Amino acid sequence: MVQSCKVSSSKASSSQKSSGKASALKKSKTSKLASKKAAPNKRVAASSKSLPSNKILVGNCIERLKELPDNSVDLVFADPPYNLQLEGELHRPNNSKVDAVNDEWDQFDSFSAYDEFTKAWMAEARRILKPDGAMWVIGSYHNIFRVGTTLQDLGFWILNDIIWRKSNPMPNFKGTRFCNAHETLIWASKTGKSRPTFNYDSMKAFNDDLQMRSDWLLPICNGGERLKDNLGKKVHPTQKPEGLLYRVLMASTNPGDVVVDPFFGTGTTGAVAKALGRQWIGIEQDKSYIEAAEIRLSKVRPVSPEDLQALKPKRSAPRVPFGTLLELGLLEAGTTLYGPRAKKSAEVRADGTIQCAEQQGSIHKMGAYVQGLDACNGWTYWHFKADGELKPIDLLRHEARNQLGLN
Ligand SMILES: C[S@@+](CC[C@H](N)C(=O)[O-])C[C@H]1O[C@@H](n2cnc3c(N)ncnc32)[C@H](O)[C@@H]1O
Question: What percent of the chain has pLDDT over 90?
Fold first, then answer.
């Protein structure tokens, strides 16, 4: 969907050069604590805040989230530091070095420091969500259990935990443990009373008419999608695959919704949101990642609004009773209706029933009766003849909704 881009090696590799950056980050860690105490003064009055849509906000997400209005966004997607606690270098059997995540931004002094950090950004994320809003957080065994506890402690309501099974995981080179082949995404609504967006019917159609399950098989980010610098080095150590965000956003947002990613990295969430006609706001503290994200986002071409039209949930279609077809003149009393392949037939009566031999009843009851079943959807079972063809009466219901302005 989005092409790879090259960023200047000096900028991209600046994230790896630790000396200057480490001190800047240390500073931001210290200021994080300081700013927590200063929070009430820093808070801008809710009414004066506005949503900077389709922009990357530079800086510490805890501070930048505070600038966004209460109850204003539909979804938060967060890919926070995992606190991987990697010790030493990791090598493959051929002794080549594994490009592991050992960046300063992923390091915390202790579990409690990580918990404090999680609580601080998550509380702000919850505040900005609309009452029916929801949040996704992705993580691994290193952090996801701590993240889940904090989510529940803050009042979020867990809807699902999704297992992202990687089709091409990195092996466990030392052979000391199982191959770590998945990550977990927690999907949670703002409160237990929220009614978050879930495009159930679309996701079922997406999955060949099978209810989508909570285990997703997707490859890790590689190939043309992986952003590289001029030297062919990865721009970001943990760039997420667009396929993952595609599924998340298709399932839990609608076109025009506002999606916030407080750990924007190279902007995977923004790139997919832009392509799918969603609004996005990214927060990131590392300038080299921001530069890569901006180039990437400038290349994304949004899908046309017509192509974004989602399947309307059947249960939300307004109810139109069979009798309305008679009232609107779409069917007349005396018309013959047919079962599939015209093996059964029935006559429409003026009172909205249909009659087959000695039996009379609703389209549903008679559909069940002629098939010897307990129940039947008469709208799809019964057909009318037009231009020598059999067409389901459901088409007339659709026309009735059009005429009543209900579609
Ligand atoms: C796991 S990565 C996200 C990668 C991103 N999903 C992608 O596909 O490129 C986490 C990102 O959060 C950023 N980050 C870490 N702590 C932050 C903070 N306090 N405020 C803002 N950004 C932060 C890091 O620089 C890093 O780019």
Answer: 76
Q: Check if the beta carbon of residue 84 is closer than 8 Å to that of residue 101.
A: yes
d(CA 245, CA 261): 11
User: In angstroms, what CA-CA distances link 356 with 15, 360, 380?
Assistant: 77, 6, 17
pTM for the full predicted model: 0.73
11 vs 23: CA distance, rounded Å: 17
**CB of 251 within 8 A of CB of 199?**
yes
- C-alpha of residue 236 to centroid of ligand 1, in Å: 9
What is the C-alpha radius of gyration for the chain, rounded to an integer number of angstroms?
27
The answer, yes or no, to whether residue 22 has pLDDT greater than 50, is: no
CA neighbor of 137 nearest in space, from 20, 10, 306, 252: 252
CB distance 265 to ligand 1 below 6 Å: yes
CA distance 159 to 148: 12
State the pLDDT at residue 41. Answer: 40
For ligand 1, whether the C-beta of 263 sits within 6 Å is yes
Top mutation candidate among 263, 272, 288, 296 for ligand 1, by most atoms within 8 Å of CB: 263
Is 95 strand, coil or helix? coil
What six digits make up the tokens of 285? 């503290």
Q: Tell me the backbone φ, ψ of residue 331, rounded to 5 degrees.
A: -140, 150
3-state helix, strand, coil in the chain (%, to 5): 35, 20, 45
Question: CB burial class (10 A; 0-12, 13-18, 19+) of residue 51?
Answer: middle
Q: Judging by DSSP bridges, how do beta strands 215-218 and 359-361 pair with one another?
A: unpaired
